Amino acid sequence: MIRVRLFVGVLLLACLLGGSLGQTLPTVWDVQNREQYPSPRDDFAACGRSNYSWVCDPNRMFSREQVEELNTILDGIHKSSCPCGIRCPTSSTNDNGFIVILAVVENYSYRGGEEEFARWYREHKQTDARCGEDAVIFYDFSINRMTISTGLRNFQTLTDSITETIRAPYDAKIKSQNRDEVFEGLKGFLGVASKVYHGTYTPPGLKVWAHLLIAALASLGFIFMASILFCFCTSCKTFWGEKPAPALDEMPAEEELGKSAGRVPFYHIMPSGIKGDDGDNLIDPDVDSSPTAQEMPADDFAMMSKVAAGRKGRRV
Ligand SMILES: *[C@@H]1O[C@H](CO)[C@@H](O)[C@H](O)[C@H]1NC(C)=O
Ligand SMILES: *[C@@H]1O[C@H](CO)[C@@H](O)[C@H](O)[C@H]1NC(C)=O
Fold first, then answer.
1. Ligand 1 centre distance from Cα of residue 121 (Å)
2. Domain limits at 290?
3. Nearest ligand to the C-alpha of residue 42?
4. What is the greatest pairwise CA distance in the chain?
5. Do 33 and 179 reside in the same domain of the chain?
6. Is the same domain home to 150 and 29?
């Protein structure tokens, strides 16, 4: 009797477990059932993981060991330094870096014009991102295609062109029909991506000296262009809305001197009570007692006159 009950109990349990695993997770995903796609950040069991994870493989396309290896790389990416500036936690821990989640499906069925699953997943599922430092890498085994959706901050690091560059050597494997090849391809790609996120990636063929050379040439080019522009502007007579200063040998005519004599030239912007002259007799003796006159250092005053004289020529 007890044996029969035990048997029935075990059978029921098996049915429940089997049923819950089999029914809730489709093998063909689409816009209608994508809500059920689990997140390895909370529903890790449904993703086939035993703890919080970065990989979700609900259809078990990879072996447990393969998933474990990929998860280790993604965990390493998360140990990069926090890219969110003021939104980073003040206590420095080593797990606030970039977030990369790998989502794998057996078959995703698009219905034309529908947004990519990777993007939908990143925007609707929990990724714990603070400032768009997250990326979702989606792999669809039915068409052997990898798609990537990045948040804004992540995109600034893993740009389109870097993605293309680091993906190229693994592209054949990623597109392969063989699951183990796909695994090797993804592993290789993620390994290099991890260097990008850690800031230790150097593009192939571009060594450090090449970077320095490029920087030096760029600086020289900039200085050259700036000089051209500067020369052009200073030689352009109307640029500042002024005529260039007349040469010193073009002294004003006698009558012009007579006209301007006795007038305070325009450049004598100075505390009231001080009048300028032609530089030989700078301070008017009858305002010597004014307090502002004493405050004005002679050097400053002389310089003001000099600058003014230089700009407008000797007009007084
Ligand atoms: C799961 O991960 C958390 C930290 O993320 C850790 O504290 C916990 O011990 C882990 N559980 C198991 C069963 O490994
Ligand atoms: C994926 O699912 C769709 C819809 O059920 C089906 O038409 C297609 O043949 C499947 N693709 C593969 C590779 O199994």
1. 24
2. 254-312
3. 1
4. 135
5. yes
6. yes
The per-residue pLDDT of the chain, averaged, comes to: 77
Most confident of 57-71, 77-91, 292-306: 57-71
Is residue 240 within 6 Å of ligand 1 at its C-beta? no
Ligand 2 binding pocket includes 28 (Cβ within 6 Å):
yes
Q: Distance between CA 179 and CA 144 in Å, rounded?
A: 9
Domain boundary among 198, 233, 264: 198
Give the distance (Å) from ligand 2 centre to CA of residue 107.
Answer: 6
> Mutate which of 142, 143, 177, 182 to test ligand 2's pocket (most atoms within 8 Å of Cβ)?
142
d(CA 283, CA 218): 53
Provide CB contacts within 8 A for 284, sequence distance 6+: 274, 275, 277
Question: Which residue's alpha carbon is nearest to atom 4 within ligand 2?
Answer: 109
- pTM, two decimals, is 0.62
Domains contained in the chain, number? 2
- In tens, the pLDDT along 101-120 reads 999 999 999 988 888 999 99
**35 and 113 assigned to the same domain:** yes
**Tokens read off for 223:** 């200085």
**211 occurs within a structural domain:** no
The domain boundary, picked from 157, 178, 198, lies at 198
Ligand nearest to the CA of 53: 1
Query: Coil, strand, or helix at residue 148?
Result: strand
Nearest protein Cα to ligand 1, atom 10 = 51
Stretch 132-153: mean pLDDT = 96
